[in-house]
Write a structure and sequence with these properties.
The chain has 394 residues and is of the alpha/beta class. The protein folds into two domains: 70 residues, no CATH class; 285 residues, Aminopeptidase (3-Layer(aba) Sandwich). It contains ten helices and eight strands. Strands 1-2-4-3-5-8 form a six-stranded mixed beta sheet, with helices on both faces. The protein has a two-stranded parallel sheet with strand order 6-7. The termini are close together.
Length: 394
């Protein structure tokens, strides 16, 4: 009886084991990962309430920011950046001339920078932060022609800031029915880090949010007030909007935002199988501080549907009123779900403490490729061991 015959007999004997292991590695594990991701969000139904966020208004606010200064746009340390901060103040004073705001001044390598904070419903001790960065990148480092030119930053910066302004307008009209203090926080100096070996020398990403969290004790009374959550809006106005599952985000909070958007019918923007990746963004310092935080952001690194990141083509013609409205209405609905005083039935994920991170999409793909190989190799080693033992016994 030769070795090949033993081999055949043992494979035949263990074919069920081979089949079971293959099924587990190829089918069960990916399905389990998907189920864990999806089940991390409670089943709930959005509160039936009218939404007033207007994407056309938000589009105008994006355009206003780009028109403030067309030489440097909103680069830190320039007049354009300074005038944009003043623009935010003027828009919020249109909502309420007496609204409370704070200019958070700081310097990065002797460059004057400024975060801008507005507060609504300060009589409540629980705080929800809505944030976006407003600076535009100093150099178009991904541009094939104009790498030394500034980035207009229509999507990358201005879109999130525009959504905050329109949200402030619509939420102000319902503020007396909301059981939460809301902060509208505009970050400077987010977008100047190194990219393709270019940037502002010595600068890192998210300088403004990092500095704000370092000084956060100056902005609230920690003995009486507390933070419920932080929601960051970054690149939310481009055409073909599709958010990713950002893994620094608190998953129970991000999943609730995704489910809220899906129930509004925005299944393309909030896909059931989102790209998975970890992005260093303005929410990360808040996560590190202990505040549940979520980043609504798109795939900006490899996206044929929106290829304008850090180029001079990040302009108004690539901004979508609909994308802005999808983002704004989803956040508006989320706030009503959780904080409208007449609502006593909504069962979301509050207090958003649960967090489960998945491997990034590229890593997950590699895992799915190598798991079956490892599994089959393991089975063959078992078979080989049995074969040698059987041969020796004869």
């Amino acid at each position: 009886m030769n070795v090949s015959y033993y081999w055949w007999i043992l494979i035949k004997k263990f074919h069920k084991l081979i089949l079971i292991i293959s099924i587990v590695l190829i089918v069960v594990i990916p399905i389990t990962i998907s189920i864990i991701f999806l089940s991390n969000s409670n089943t709930f139904t959005n509160l039936d309430v009218d939404l007033y966020f207007n994407g056309d208004n938000a589009y105008t606010y994006v355009e206003d920011q780009l028109n403030i200064n067309t030489t440097h746009y909103r680069k830190p340390g320039t007049q354009g950046r300074e005038d944009c901060a003043k623009y935010f103040v003027s828009k919020f004073q249109e909502i309420d001339p007496s609204i409370n705001y704070t200019l958070h001044n700081f310097t990065i390598h002797s460059v004057d920078c400024q975060n801008v904070l507005f507060k609504m419903n300060e009589n409540f001790t629980n705080i929800l932060i809505l944030g976006a960065h407003y600076d535009s990148r100093a150099r178009a480092t991904k541009d094939s022609v104009n790498q030394n030119s500034p980035v207009p930053g229509a999507n990358d910066g201005a879109s999130g800031s525009a959504v905050l302004i329109e949200l402030a307008k619509v939420l102000y009209n319902r503020r007396q029915n909301l059981s939460v203090q809301i902060w509208f926080l505009f970050f400077d100096a987010e977008d100047q880090g190194y990219d393709y070996s270019h940037g502002i020398l010595g600068w890192d990403w998210c300088e403004g949010s990092t500095k704000f969290v370092q000084d956060i004790e100056d902005f609230y009374n920690s003995s009486e007030e507390h933070f419920d959550a932080m929601i960051l809006l970054d690149m939310v106005g481009g055409a073909n909007l599709k958010f990713i599952s950002e893994q620094h985000s608190t998953s129970s909070l991000l999943n609730e935002l995704f489910e809220t958007g899906r129930q509004l019918g925005y299944t393309s923007a909030f896909p059931s199988d989102p790209i998975i990746n970890s992005i260093t963004d303005d929410h990360v310092p808040f996560v590190s501080y202990g505040i549940p935080s979520a980043d609504l952001i798109i795939n900006f690194w490899d996206n044929p549907a929106w290829p304008y990141h850090h180029t001079t083509e990040d302009i108004m013609s690539h901004i979508s009123n609909y994308s802005l409205e999808v983002t704004g209405k989803t956040v508006e609905q989320f706030i009503y779900n959780n904080y409208l005083e007449t609502n006593d039935q909504f069962q979301g994920n509050f207090p958003w403490n649960d967090d489960f991170n998945l491997p990034d999409s590229d890593l997950l793909t590699l895992i799915m490729i190598f798991l079956p190989i490892i599994g089959i190799a393991s089975v063959l080693l078992i078979v080989r061991s049995r074969l040698i033992k059987s041969k020796n016994s004869t």
